[in-house]
Amino acid sequence: MPRLTLKGLGKAYGPLKVVNDVDLTLEEGEFVSLLGPSGCGKTTTLRMIAGFIEPTEGSISMNGEVLSAPGAVLPPERRRMSMIFQSYAIWPNMTVAENVGFGLKLQKLPSAEVKSRIGRILEVVKMSHLADRYPSELSGGQQQRVALARAIVVQPSVLLLDEPLSNLDANLREEMRFEIRRLHDEFRITTVYVTHDQSEAMATADRIAVMNAGRIEQVDAPHLIYTRPRTRFVAAFIGRTNLLEGRLANGEIGLDGFALRAAQLGGAPPDSARPILLSVRPQSMALHRTQPAARDGYPLLPATVAQRTYLGESWDYVVHPRESGLQLRVTAPPLQVHEVGETVWLEFDPQQIAVVN
Amino acid sequence: MQGISRRGLLASAAIIGSGGAAMRAAAQDLPAHERALYEAAKREGQVTWYSGQQSAETSEAVGRAFGERYPGVHVNVVRSTSQVAFQRLSQDIRAGVAQCDVFSSVDYSHSTFLKRQGRLMAYTPQNAAGLLEFARKAGDPDGQFHVFYIGVHLLSRHTGQVPAAEAPKSWQDLLDPKWRGKMAVGHPGFSGAIGAWAVLMRKMYGWEYFTKLEKNRPQIGRSSIDPVTALNAGERSIGVAVPSATALLSISRGNPQELIYPTDGTVVVPSPSCIQKNAPHPNAAKLFMEFATGPEYFRVTRKYFSESLRGDVPPPEGAKPLESIKIIMPTPQEIETGVTEVKEQWRDTFGI
Amino acid sequence: MTDSAAILPKPAALEARRPGLLRRLRYLEPSNLLWVLLVATLLFLVAVPIGKLLVVSFEEQGTGAFTLSNYATAYGRVRYLEALGNSLMLGALSSFFSVIFAVPMAWAVSRTDMPGKGFTWAMVMGAFIMPPYLGAVGWILLAGPNSGFLNQAWTWLTGIESPLVNVYSFAGLALVIALHSFPLIFIFVKSALDLISSEMEDAANILGAGTWTAMRKVTLPLVWPAVLGGIIVVFLETVALFGTPAIIGIPARINVVTTQLWQFFEYPVRVEVAAAYAMPLLLITIGMIAVQKLLLARKGFVSQTGKGGERRPIRLGGWRWAVLGYCVFVGALSVLMPLVVLLQASFAKAWGRGLSLANLTLDNYAYLLFRHEMALTSIWNTLWFSAASATAAVIIAVLVAYIVARRLVPFGSALGFLAMAPFVIPGIVMAIGFYAAYAAPPVALYGTALIIILAFTARFLPIAFANSSAAVRAVHPEMEEASRILGGGRLLTIRRITAPLISRSLIGGWLIVFIVASRELSAAVFLVGPRTRTMSVLLYDLSEAGNFEVLAAFGGLLLAITLILVAIGMKLAGRDFMLRRN
């Protein structure tokens, strides 16, 4: 099985470690997204995979063959990969067909085959009618499709994408997001996709590797990254959440002003007495105007509405539980209107609360 | 224009041949000694002539005439002022590169210096036997340099701006404040002739002559020819130490000038030419020496009003016979020590 | 990829014995060898001549022993020091005049609704391409104190005998130089003005400042760095200029550094003293750059880089005609008037006799073309030297620019520095450095075409480099990475992707180098041999005797050649290729 393996990979510029001890393995045909804020080292990692940057530590190998190690970097042109760039990097001096055929010609394929493969891939990306256009005559989305076609047509061992949608407007971005996933489902090319946009990563990737400050914080399927964040960073970075510090003792997690039973929480229940961090998503709580009937294991607290913001699809309330110093963000449907200063009942759903550490 | 006159000063000889002789002498018509050299020179193909003597136009005409007489041998005419020509040669020597075959300047000391340094080739052209005696004697007895040009330098006036009656008559007259802002002169740092003239003026009148001249603010060009063009343009009205040949050529073309032969002496500067020992085209260089001492050269330069130094070629039209006027001539020794001195003095006095 | 040095190719025998090395060769980029070659070339072209100049200035002539006497000689005479002072004053005055000419024109073209912008452009362009020594000849014809057309007209109009303007004066010299240097400031200032958003002026207007106040208090201060940069370039150009001071300065009795340097080359050639005397030029240059850094470090000029905001022309109303008048005035002084008198002189028997049928002749041209064999040779020399230099400079420049922009080697910026260094080395100093380093054996290049081509290449490398650098930077690195990841090697990528993308800019750069090389005098005058004289040197030789008719005709030929090239350039590289600032 072709496997792309990053082992202890690191890149330092002087004392500054941009990428630090990154371990990651991609199975054949897998789609992994590197997700993280800008400056987290995800693009550097991608460019090390491509061979544009030499690592200072660790190695990158493909099927056991080392591609990159400190002092020994196989040039990008010998890696049989392909890449889609943030700027698309469509060559303005070539037509669409010439752009797409460039890699095939470098492989010295017979011209008839080059021609038929260009034709086929342009059909796949729905660009056949524009084969003889120059890039300056194309829209942003069309250029993006050319970039996709150019990268896929060579049947690379690995496809690398560097923030490919960041220059598109919102609607087009959504469309292209599905397009990328569709092409992946069709060709099953091993793919590394760098983005800072979590919804992009969620929509496309089989697994997401969340990066922060040069390290991989967590690698998991998208829904697990969201529901079972394993670090404070992942919990805070993916979606919005309330991070609550508590203390575990005797199967109960003591929080400021109330407690939760550990056994009820999602994920593996912690076993020993220690400080603990909980991620409480805004939608894992409900607000009630009057005190509802208590349900077993669903803690219920009286609270005051401190702030509110209407977001269109929902209300975003900040509530302040009585006898507690906490400030919690809670999401409510648009029709559920509370005034600032109003007293409400706050109900927790323990199933949706994740223990972070 | 005055008719052709003879000069007693320059030992007379019968005029042989005519000025209208065929310009294009076919190779087989050449005298035996020239033909032998020509054959050798043809293999070299060219000859490079650094010259500060004749005007650019005359020098080019000489080069062309040479090429016509000896087809297949091309003259690279590098015309500049004498001091710049010598500067170029010095740069060649300093760089250890041989580029120059024949070097001609108005500054006698250039050739004597090169001779002392052992940089010259001794060659006495057979045609030199036909030069006037004084020219023959002005050359090097060892045959390392020869004189086939004399500079004749004098005054000229703009006929429209200075009536003959008011014109200066002598070098001394130039110190009169009425010529303030009217004169033009060359520069001894560039022109060899102006160097010789300055040496003579200093000898006759002391350096005060120039400190006084400076007060009249002459316009300083580089070449001694520059004042001629300044007068043509009407920029200045008195040309100082201008070469008679260029002035006469200019007058013949209708420019409003007239020569003035100074009562205290017209400056005559015998100007040597030499072949470099390391000349890249030695045979062509010798052939050029033969040509330049022979009648053909003077027939050509005569048309540009240069003095003829051969008895078989008449002097140019319009020039006063030199025997009829007072001549002053520097000695080689005076030039050798004097020119370097006056260059420095000039720069101190005139600031340039 | 910084592993180049360790894995350069080794002899085959070695590989056979050490299979491990072969494996490592897989990681080699073959292009690395080229960079080594390039470093050597830059050292040869730039570092060695200048280093040699420095060394020679401490050497005794003949023996080569260490001495300080060259400096004692070079600064031991009041006259030599005066020349230095004159150069500094001349530089300052020319810069001043250039600012007066350029800044209002740049403002008018960039910010206002002045009519006739195309005309103004053409004038600036004309002033830029006319060789300064030709302009000097033109101004001698115009403003010679007695015969100049302007003074004659003045006397005819007013009856006053004393001249209106005298070109043979310090101010005259500075003015003539400024008339051909001001385009540099114009280009700098205009491109800076182009970047300033109208909102900057609007903000001043809304607070109560009128058009003029806004211009004085807001717009102009914002482009101060550009003005300062322009002033420094003009100052350095002026101090290093040889032709104009030689043609005007000698009759005006003004000795400057360059004419004094020339004197040190009189017999005996004192390269050592010349080298010592050239050192202040280098120090001044370094000093000026330092001053610029210091002045600009203090204030923020952020808005220059700001791209946002619309730019709309200021409506000048009736004033626009006055502003246009000023542009026409400068254009007339710098281009139209000198050009007219030069043309007149080139077709005249004696230019002082003015325009009349009797005075009309084609003989000046005929003389140059048919009876002056060096003239044709020099035209040919000029063409092919310039073409060779432009080609060499552009090739070196684009490779260096590429290395620097793509950070291919450690200390790449040092390469860029070397390529830019000749910008601050006066041409005449460069030529003396070349003479000192390469004239004599063992290199023995004196009098060859090669030494001139090399000197021109080195001298104009910065122009080519600035041009190439901008062109390369405009190509997004991802354009190349896209090719490499698809299997294209570095060199294939340069050939197939980068080169086609930058070719238009490079053609423009090539032509600019060609044009400035074709009129270069100060670098050529010390290096030419009898068969390698260029048009500029022959023109200088012709100017000794003051034969302005032939000079003008030769200048006419030079201008005709230049204009043809400019036309080609506009066709191939865009209308504004010469005045673009990268």
From TrEMBL, chain A:
InterPro entries: AAA+_ATPase, ABC_SmlMolc_Importer, ABC_transporter-like_ATP-bd, ABC_transporter-like_CS, Mo/tungstate-bd_C_term_dom, P-loop_NTPase, Transp-assoc_OB_typ2. This is ABC transporter ATP-binding protein. Gene3D superfamilies: 2.40.50.100, P-loop containing nucleotide triphosphate hydrolases (3.40.50.300). It comes from Teichococcus aestuarii. Pfam families: ABC_tran, TOBE_2. GO terms for cellular component: ATP-binding cassette (ABC) transporter complex. One of its GO terms (molecular function) is transmembrane transporter activity. Keywords: ATP-binding, Nucleotide-binding, Transport. Transmembrane segments: none annotated. Residues 4-238 form the ABC transporter domain. The lineage of its organism: Bacteria, Pseudomonadati, Pseudomonadota, Alphaproteobacteria, Acetobacterales. GO terms for biological process: quaternary ammonium group transport.
Automatic annotation (TrEMBL), chain B:
Coiled coil: none annotated. Keywords: Signal. It comes from the Bacteria. The keyword NADP does not apply. The keyword Acetylation does not apply. Pfam families: SBP_bac_6. This is Tat pathway signal protein.
Automatic annotation (TrEMBL), chain C:
Pfam families: BPD_transp_1 (PF00528). InterPro entries: MetI-like, MetI-like_sf. The chain crosses the membrane at residues 33-51, 88-109, 121-142, 167-189, 222-254, 274-297, 318-343, 383-405, 417-438, 444-466, 505-530, 550-573. Keywords: Cell inner membrane, Cell membrane, Membrane, Transmembrane, Transmembrane helix, Transport. It is found in: Cell inner membrane; Cell membrane. The keyword ATP-binding does not apply. Its main location: membrane. One of its GO terms (biological process) is transmembrane transport. GO terms for cellular component: plasma membrane. It is a multi-pass membrane protein. The keyword RNA-binding does not apply. Residues 84-292, 379-569 form the ABC transmembrane type-1 domain. It comes from the Bacteria. Belongs to the binding-protein-dependent transport system permease family. This is ABC transporter permease.
